[in-house]
Structures are given as structure tokens and as C-alpha cells.
């Protein structure tokens, strides 16, 4: 870890809460909102989230699986996300979610008219904005946690989140809510 955390303090709560209380609380709220208020289907949501986790290299995010109504994506889904161009496990919306996440993170200047024509053929403008905000949150929070070494001290929370997944409360910060 690259941040000094006082002995006895939870690293995530300390960094995201005590060190920067004004910013950390807002970040935690955004992180939870991505999960609590999404209208996206589980597969496209997870395809985008996992692609960002793969790009960021965030250990916690790579282990996380969003749960909705007792359902999670199938085993092997993360491998399919990594192989989004060639996998036959995805419909077009799921493939586009993985592609958009990758291009958003690595080549946002290359999002050309041909790409947007494909996106708007499968996603509403509202869904595109929601997916963009979600990807932005995952990119920022996952990268921050990985860069600071917090992703290796995150623990998967045991309780259900308000959105039906495994998550801790907002005071624990994005590292505990898989808000990446």
C-alpha cells in the first residue's frame, strides 16, 4: 500500500472517509448510485465493469461479481469479457458494452461515427449516458485504488447491497462497494 494508514484503522474507510471526507463521501455516493440506480441489464453492466477491472488491474474489482435478485453472471464470463471481440457468449449489447468500456478507457478519441451508429442501434441515449457515467466511475475508482495499493487490502463484504449485490454501506467507500 502506498498510503500510510494508522494502526487499527481500516485502510478503505480511512482513505476514502477520514483522509478526504468531503471528496470521499461524494465518491462513495457515486459508487453506490451506479449499482443502486442502474437500468442496464446485468450482462452488459458486468461486461463493461469487468472490462474496466481488467484494464485497471484492480484485484478487488476483478474478484467482484455484481448480484441482482440472487443472480450473477456465469462462470467464465470474465474470460469472455477479455475475449469480447471473438466470444460467442455475448449478444450485441453485451459485446458493445465491453467494447465501449475498453475504448472509453484506452481510445476515447477513436470513438468514431461508425462506433456510435452501432451503439445507438442497440442502446438508447439514456442508456449510453448511464453506461458512460458507470464506466467513468469504475475507471476512476478502480484505478485510484489500484495505484494506491488499496485493491489488495479490500475485502469482499458479506452483506447484500441495496441493489441486491454484495456491498458494504457508503461509509466504507468505493473500495468496499466495488465502485469501479
TrEMBL record:
<feature type="region of interest" description="Disordered">
    <location>
        <begin position="161"/>
        <end position="180"/>
    </location>
</feature>
<dbReference type="InterPro" id="IPR003779">
    <property type="entry name" value="CMD-like"/>
</dbReference>
<feature type="domain" description="Carboxymuconolactone decarboxylase-like">
    <location>
        <begin position="25"/>
        <end position="102"/>
    </location>
</feature>
<dbReference type="InterPro" id="IPR029032">
    <property type="entry name" value="AhpD-like"/>
</dbReference>
<protein>
    <submittedName>
        <fullName>Carboxymuconolactone decarboxylase family protein</fullName>
    </submittedName>
</protein>
<dbReference type="Pfam" id="PF02627">
    <property type="entry name" value="CMD"/>
</dbReference>
